Each structure stands twice: as structure tokens, then as C-alpha cells.
Amino acid sequence: MSANVSGVKHTRGFDVIKPLSIGVMVAVMLPLVLLPLASIFIFGTSKGLPSFWHALVEPEAIFALKLSFVTSFWATLFNIIFGLFAAYILSRYTFWGRNAIIVIISIPTAIPTAVAGFALLLLWGPYGLLGRFLPLDMQIMFTPYAIILANIFVTFPLAFGVIMPVLETMSRSLEEASATMGASRWQTFWHVTLPSLRGAIVGGALLTFARAVGEFGSTILVSGNLAGRTQTAPLYIFSKFNEGQVEAANAVAIVLALFSFVIFSVLFFARDWLEAD
Amino acid sequence: MDVLLAAVNLAACLPGPTTGNGQGVVITLYGFSIMKEPLEKAIFPAFAAKWRAEHGVNVSFITSFAGSETVTNQILQGAPADVAILAIERDADKLVQGGATKDDWRSRPNGGIVNKTPFIILVRKDDPKQISDFPDLGKPGIQIIHPDPTSSGGAQWSILAIYGSELEKSQAKTGTQDPARAQNLLASIWRNVISTPGSAREARTGFETGYGDALITYELEGLSMKQAGDPIDIVVPKATIYSEHPAVMIDRNMSAEKRSVVEAFVDYLWSDEAQQAFVKYHFRSVTNETFNDANPEFAKIEMPFTVQLFGGWDKAYPDIIQNIFVNQVKSK
Question: Which residues of A touch B66 (CB under 8 A)?
Fold first, then answer.
């Protein structure tokens, strides 16, 4: 009898556990993730597609989306280059303080984003530690640069976190072979190390970008939240919601939801190509 | 910075601002949450047209709206405001004390107050919980949305409205004010608060979404909700406060050239044109009561009072908000 327990699916030709477990999984996801997302789409389009489109082509809405994408682009570019650089150094050399640096790079993950925002204000604000020495026309806070700085801070660990483990587990034999054949350190990095990091770099960049586009807590503190000037898409959504213009807020929210759907689809389906050697 | 900005613009098309691009004067205004409609729909366009006609210069506006205390703190942290319109005088004083401005804002007409509106109670259509005045809000089972007094000026007005209404009523009845009664009412109402959003406007959005049986707020919020067809009723308390809203010019870092335009704009807020625009968007005029009589939507209030009942904000904040509300009511 007991021997048959594991053979249930063979004797009946049908594995009950499979549909059951899938059902449970979807049932758990439904109220936690799927329905909240669905409600954005339902409310965003409840007054018809023309009114959705109208809300979306508002100059302030378009500006907010553009500003989010541009500031996130620069933050991503910086964090990818720095993340690659830091991961390379930390995986190749051991030195005093190495572990401390790894921990410090990871800290922004657990810091509330509002704290990141006012930390930047306390440093770079017009009355901040360093900001007070900047001339008036070179102030950083309450400009798009402040948004880039905030994005860099909150997404700092992401690209590094994706690249570092790949570098650490990478076989050294190819690099060693390259060096034996007379390649310079730079040639080895450019032709051997970097190509095998392709997947990690693209993955890290998409994660960083997606996270930066959705950033809210730090941006609202450092940007000044001026409509059409320093108001990013998440701030626009928040302001419109507060004004009671739920459709306008939802229209932009739908764009952000579709955007993250695209990003993570790319991550998922391009995995084979990205991880090929 | 300009060179860097140009480089960033070229490299990744950092979007140009939607208003005030390069030419003319740009005025940056930070306002408390409910000021948005009259300014953006009526007063900005009218002032810009007037200034262009008189001086041939384009004026455009960029804005940010949030709870009054939030706006004040943003400006104190260095946010680039030229004008602030605030929910309470105390915030205007904070801007002066914090060094953001040297503006002698009280020297303008009506002591620097640009408009006013009484505090009323919003209830669901046909008043299913039978709320007819502030004391009904303290009954068990009533759920109230009330903005957070630490970030919202409207929330502080609401607390003064509740507390002051009992002082006025006891005064009318017995000839002396009864602070104990007033504090009891405030405490019983606060026990029924289920959510404290950051601004009066956020509280309204929460109420519109269906939370709570009642919302204490500016009369104009109720009138604009009725205009939008929301299923609500306005309950006018027998005794309630008029909230009065100051405008301040933020002259830290302001060029002389810009100053003349900003000053003209601030003065314009007391013009008949602007005051009538406020009335159109449900605020009450402070310069001319006949403007208000012309608007039949405005409720008649039996026993109206102002912050002067408490001796002005200099006394009302420490005595009522801090000492009675924060230290005694909220902490329980």
C-alpha cells in the first residue's frame, strides 16, 4: 500500500497535485498582486479609451513620464558603470576594508527612500553641509539633477548586486589563457571578461532602470514637486490622486505598469541570449 | 550649471519645462492644497493677460500644491518659491522667522489675508448618520476622516472650529466660556477619527473614495464636490470658524526686476477681479461682502468666529493645538 503512494499519478494517469498547487498559487496571487493591478486598468479606462488617452496626452503627464525616463537613464548609466567597476575590483583584490565596502554598497536597499531624500537635502540643500557653499545658480536640490542623485542613491546596490556574484563565480581559466597569450589587462577585460558579463549587465541595467522609474519617496523630498518642471511620473500620480483626479492618476499608472511588464518580459525571454557565452 | 544642463539636454533630451520656457517672467508659487483651482483656472490667466497688456511682458506660473505645513517646510529647506499662499498665518510667520523672506506680509490689505471660508461638516447624501452639528461627530459609531494637524493647516482650523464652537455656545448660554466642555467634545470626536491624511485635499479624496461618515473641511471643498455631482450633503454647524489664508512673497534670492512683477501679482490678489474669481471658486471675499452676498451657495452661519476668539494664532497654536490637542487629546 505504502509503495503506491508515490505512484498515485501513474496508476490514475493524472496528477492532482499539479492543478491543485497551481490553483493555490494563483489564488494567493489574485488578491495580493493581480487584482490591485487589474483595478488600475479598470479605473483608468472606466470612462472610455478617449478619456484615458486625453488624460495621457496632458502636457504635464507627458513631461512627467519623460522626466522619469531621462533621470532614470542617467542614474542607470552611472550605476552600471560604477557597479561593474566596483564588482571587478572587489572580486579581484582582497584588501583591508573590502567587506565593509560591500556592506556599505548594499545599505541603500534597507534605507527608507524618504530617509535617502532628506539625507540628500541635508547634504546638498541650500542650507546643507555642502550645498551652502554652492553659488545660487549652481544649486542642485529642486532641479532634475537632484532626482538623478536620488535615483542613483536608491538603486545603488542593484546593478552591483547582479554583477558581483557572476564575477565571483566566473571561471578564471579563460582570463588566464588570455593573459598567457600576451593580452594586456585591458584587452582581457574587454574581450574576455566583459562579454561573459553581458547577461548580468543587461539584467542589472533593466532592474536599476525599472526601480528608478518607480521611485517616489526620495524624489518628492528633493525635487520640489513642481508640475512641468521637477514632477516625475510617480509624483504626478500622487498629486493627481490627491486632487481627486483619479482617472488622470490612473492613466499614468497604467503606462508605468505596462512599462514594468515589458521590462520584466524582456528580462525573462532574453535570458537565454543574455546568458549564452 | 547651464553648460551641463545643455549637455544633458542634448544627450538625452531632458524634457524642457512645459511652461515659462525662456522668455518672460516665471513666477513659482507654492500653495496649500485647496488653492489650486481658482489660481490655475482664473487668477493666473487673468493676471498674465493684464501684465502683457500693460507691460508687454509674458508672465507664466509654475506651481506645487500640498499641505500648508509641508509647503512651508519645503520652502524653508530651499524650494525655489516666489510666492506662498498658506492655510494659516503661523506658517507665514515661520517663513519670516526662518529667513526665507523679509516680506512684511501683514502690511497688505486685510492684514495679509487674501480670502476666507468657513469650516463645515460633509456627510453622505441624505445624512444617514443624522449629523447636524459638531457634537454629533463625537457619538459612538461615527467614522471620521480628519487631516493630520502636523502637516495640514486645514486640520488645525478644524480643531479650532470644534473647540471654539463649544466656547461660543457656552458663552451664549451661561455668559462664560467652558473650556472643559470644549476639550471633551474635541476628545470624543478625535476618538472617532479613522484616518489622518496629509492635507485637506487628500482627506477629501479619501472621503470621496468612500471612507468615513463625515469630513470636517473648508466650505469650498463641499461646494466644489456638490458641483461635481458627488453624493454628499453639507452640514453647517451652528457655531464655526472662518479660516483665513495669508499670501507671502518669498524674497530671498529675488532679483529687483522680478520683484516688481511678483509684488504686482501679490497685490493683484486683493483686486476686485481676483476676489470675484475666488468667490466663483467658492472662497469668500475678504474685501467686499457684497461679492459674497451675490453667491447664494454660501451658507448662513449663526455664530461665526475667527482665530481672534483665541487671541490670534500666536495664542491659538500653543494654547489649543499644542497644549490641548497634542498634549492632552491626541496622547490619550
Answer: 225, 242
Q: Is the ipTM of this complex over 0.95?
A: no
Pick the CATH number of B117-243+299-330 from 3.40.50.920, 1.10.10.10, 2.40.50.100, 3.40.190.10: 3.40.190.10
Please tell me the distance from the alpha carbon of residue B331 to that of residue B325, in angstroms, as a whole number.
8
Q: Which residues from chain A sit within 8 angstroms of residue B199, using beta carbons? A: 242
Whether residue A225 and residue B66 make contact (CB cut-off 8 A), yes or no, is: yes
pLDDT tens for residues B47-65? 999 999 999 999 999 999 9
Instruction: Please report residues of B whose CB lies closer than 8 A to that of A59.
Output: 18
Q: Among the CATH numbers 1.10.760.10, 3.40.50.2300, 1.10.3720.10, 3.90.550.10, which is that of A47-275?
A: 1.10.3720.10
What's the confidence (pLDDT) of residue B2?
47
> What gap in Å lies between CA B50 and CA B118, rounded to an integer?
31
Mutate to test the interface with B, among A226, A238, A239, A250 (most CBs of B within 10 A): A226
pLDDT in tens, A25-74: 999 999 999 999 999 988 888 888 898 999 999 999 999 999 999 999 99
Which stretches of chain A score pLDDT less than 70? 1-12, 274-277
Which residues in chain A have their CB less than 8 angstroms from residue B62's CB?
226-229
Instruction: Write the single-letter amino acid at B300.
Output: K
| B146 Cα to chain A: minimum distance (Å) | 14
Pairing state between β B193-195 and B113-124: unpaired
B74 in A contact zone (CB under 8 Å): yes
DSSP assignment string, B161-211: HHHHHHHHHHHHHHSS--HHHHHHHHHHHHHTEEE--SSHHHHHHHHHTT-
Asked if residue B11 has pLDDT above 80, the reply is: no
Is B285 strand, coil or helix?
A: strand
Q: Where are the domains of chain B?
A: 2-115+244-293, 117-243+299-330
CA separation, residue A99 to residues A96, A102, A105, A109, A155 (Å): 8, 5, 10, 17, 20
B33 closest CB neighbour out of A66, A73, A242: A242
CATH 1.10.3720.10 placement within chain A: 47-275
